[in-house]
Write a structure and sequence with these properties.
The protein is globular and about 65 Å long. Helices cover about 75% and strands about 5% of the residues. It has one domain: Rhopdopsin 7-helix transmembrane proteins. The relative contact order is 0.14. Helix 2 (about 35-65) packs parallel to helix 10 (about 280-305), helix 4 runs parallel beside helix 8 (about 205-240) and helix 4 packs antiparallel against helix 9 (about 245-275). The chain has helices at about 1-15, 35-65, 70-100, 105-140, 145-150, 150-175, 195-200, 205-240, 245-275, 280-305, 310-325; strands at about 25, 105, 185. The longest helix is centred in the middle third of the chain and has 34 residues, at about 105-140. A 3-stranded mixed sheet has the order 2-1-3. It has 11 helices and 3 strands. The protein is an all-alpha fold. The two termini are about 35 Å apart.
Length: about 325
């Protein structure tokens, strides 16, 4: 984190020379009402702790239970890590600002926050697509599953997800630090987000917006298409199963993943495809809260409640910890 901040400071100084620019941004948060701040602090602190503990337990259970050393749970562990990292990128700073009555964030910290926000959201998206493909192979080609989903191949898919998300985030960051921010430094948000920050720049942001549109659309469409066609194949395969019990067992293996997919993409459609005409800034905040806080918090509950193997592993882990006390 500090290394990235230092790199951003050097790059900015080289690009801007002696031009006068702002050195910090003001985050207005979710509400400017003083009476709301304590409630927001308690609410978001609670959601943050639930997210970290819930996803942390999933990672711990998967790492300790050899029965869960399978492709689906490798992807799930990475998804949980991305969720912990995503919420840790934004909420702690928000909580500190509420407690200290300070709304400022330095330029370098703001850009760093944007970088990691992009990384974790894109990684989530790519991992959901990878998990859909894993379920497709498991249900439609069960006899070839071990061959098709070899450990080395699964690790490669995971590494590609993280590598690609970092490349995309670095691209946006390098374009962003070329921009000047002259007069306005107030962000109507609770953390630094790319789109609101572009609106504050006094430079031409056409290239940034074009890259944001093209890359953003591609990152959404390709994983979503993989998920869609995977589930089309899964549904067709399940409908050919004669017994009701067999159909239920097949659907139950991917039910938790499908729930997370619906929550993730439902947020995108509900917030960004049907924006509020009267409160566009509030709509952006709602979308950010759903992406960075609510979805990461819900994932552990969805996977633990709908997956009997995960429930069993978590139960064993908790019992082991309780017995050691």
């Amino acid at each position: 984190m500090k290394t990235l901040c230092s790199f951003l400071q050097i790059s900015r100084n080289m690009h801007q020379g002696n031009q006068s620019t702002i050195t910090e941004f003001i985050l207005l948060g979710l509400s400017n009402q003083a009476e709301h701040q304590n409630l927001l602090f308690v609410l978001f602190l609670g959601m943050y702790l639930v997210t970290v503990v819930g996803n942390g337990l999933i990672i711990l259970a998967i790492s300790l239970d050899t029965y869960l050393h399978a492709p689906m749970y490798l992807f799930l562990a990475n998804l949980s890590f991305a969720d912990i990292s995503s919420i840790s990128n934004s909420v702690p700073k928000m909580l500190v600002n509420i407690q200290t009555n300070s709304q400022s964030i330095s330029y370098e910290s703001c850009i760093t926050q944007i970088y990691f926000s992009i990384v974790f959201v894109i990684t989530d998206n790519l991992l959901l697509g990878t998990m859909a493909y894993d379920r497709f192979v498991a249900i439609c080609h069960p006899l070839n599953y071990i061959t098709l989903m070899r450990p080395r191949f699964c690790i490669l898919l995971t590494v590609i997800s993280w590598l690609l998300s970092n490349i995309i985030a670095l691209t946006h960051t390098l374009l962003l630090i070329q921009l000047l921010f002259c007069d306005h430094n107030t962000l109507p948000h609770f953390f630094c987000d790319l789109a609101p920050l572009l609106k504050l720049s006094c430079s031409d942001t056409m290239i940034n917006e074009l890259v944001l549109f093209i890359v953003g659309l591609s990152v959404i469409i390709f994983p979503f298409a993989l998920i869609f066609f995977s589930y089309v194949g899964i549904i067709r395969a399940v409908l050919r199963i004669s017994s009701t019990q067999g159909k239920w067992k097949a659907f139950s293996t991917c039910g938790s993943h499908l729930t997370v997919v619906l929550l993730f993409y439902g947020t995108i459609v509900g917030v960004y495809f049907f924006p509020s005409s009267t409160h566009p800034e509030d709509t952006d905040k709602i979308g950010a809260v759903l992406f960075t806080v609510v979805t990461p918090m819900m994932n552990p509950f969805i996977y633990s409640l709908r997956n009997k193997d995960m429930k069993g592993a978590l139960r064993k882990l908790i019992n082991r910890k309780l017995s050691s006390l």
